[in-house]
Structures are given as structure tokens and as C-alpha cells.
Amino acid sequence: MSDPGSRPLVVVIVDDHELFAQGLALLLESKAGDRFVVGGLTTRVEEAATVVESCSADLAIIDLAMPPLGGAVAVRQVKQRRPATRVLALSGSDNLALAERALRAGADGYLPKSADPDVLLAPLLTVAAGLRVMHGELLDALLASARKPPDELLERLDSQDRTLWVLIARGLETADIATRMFVSERTAKRMVAALLHKLRLPNRIEAAGMAGHYGLLDESGLGDPH
Questions:
Q1: CA neighbor of 215 nearest in space, from 151, 169, 152
Q2: Do 91 and 112 contact (CB within 8 A), yes or no?
Q3: Cα 88 to the center of its chain, rounded Å
Q4: Lateral strand order in the sheet of 59-63
Q5: Residue 102 · residue 110 · CB < 8 Å
Q6: Does the model's pTM come out above 0.70?
Q7: Domains, the chain
Q8: What is the pLDDT along the chain (226 residues), one digit of tens a residue?
């Protein structure tokens, strides 16, 4: 991509709400016409990459809630066809899964559509400069979500398994675990082995490490097994 300061940045807007797209284009050209020029608009996911390529866009602003394919598909196709184009994804919802899909597809930034349109100017310049942009509340939510054990893992564990995992993470020996779980040491050993199998881990040390990664001993973790 050319030096962002040498010429106006070419922007493509991909949004199935045509009035929003036109309003955003007008805003960019009226508020910052010396920095941005709108190279194209499309309301169709499948046209996004073609429009971006046709005008050698520096930036693409892509709405994620675009039926039927979804904006994340447009993000991925744009990045595959023209990797140099920076992408700012917008969404009218706070769906974390949608945000994660957009980032995994290659989006360089993610902001809610509820943001004041004037606020988009600075993030666009930031993204154009090669940095990533994300709404603070969304970033906090994504980080918190990343620390939680995945649902697929939790589905393999019952409440007893979760309690046992916390005890292992706290470094309790088998005898102490047996006392806390009201079972014999032999049974406790068997329970630990079964838990490691469910976690697909070879030993207690790695089980404790995974517990730490997921914050099991934090207030937001699986809880205190009292």
C-alpha cells in the first residue's frame, strides 16, 4: 500500500443498508476529503472483493450483518484477493462470535455501528497505518471469553470433575483430595486418572497449567469447591 500521507486513501464501503453506505461515503468525503476518497460501494457480499480489486482500495469498511453469506465472508475474500487492503469491520450487534469470526477472517479492526460516524475517521487512519483497532468493551469481552474453558471441554466434565480439577490446580496431594471429596485414596487416584483422560492431558502438572490458563481459581473461573 502506498504511503498513507502521500495521497488520499481509497476506501470501499460494503454494507447492505444502502442509505448507511451512502451516508458514510458522504461523511468521509465532506469531513476528510483530503484524506479519503470513496472508490466504490456495494451492498452484496459476493461483490466486495471485486470492487476492492477494481479500484485498488487501501481500505474496506465491511458490515458483518450482511445476508445471506455474512460480512466475515467478504472480509476473507477481500484479504485473499488483495492482502494489502486493510479492513475495518462494523457490526450493529455485540455478538462476540461474530467479532471473532471477523478477526479470524483477517479484519484489521472491529467497531460497533453505534459509534458516532465522526469517530470512524481516526480508526480508519490508524488501520491504514498498519495498526489494529477494536472497541474497548469488545476487547475486554473477547479476552474474558478466551480465558474460559471452551464449551466442548466443559461438556465432558461433570460437577465432580470440575471440583477435582480445582483441587489439582491448588496442588493438593491424593490423600488431601480424598479427604475433600469424601472418598478413599484409591478412588481418588482413579478419579484423577479419569479426569486427566477427559482433559486429554498426561499429568497433573499440565492439568494445573491449563487450570491457570483458564483462570479456574479466579472469581470468573469454575469456582471454589467448598
A1: 169
A2: yes
A3: 13
A4: 36-42, 9-14, 59-63, 86-91, 109-112, 133-134
A5: yes
A6: no
A7: 9-146 (3.40.50.2300), 151-213 (1.10.10.10)
A8: 445 457 899 999 999 998 989 989 998 888 888 999 999 999 999 999 999 999 999 999 999 988 888 899 999 999 999 999 999 999 877 677 777 788 889 999 988 876 666 778 888 999 999 998 886 666 666 666 656 677 778 788 998 998 999 999 999 999 999 999 999 999 999 999 999 999 989 999 888 888 887 877 764 344 445 5
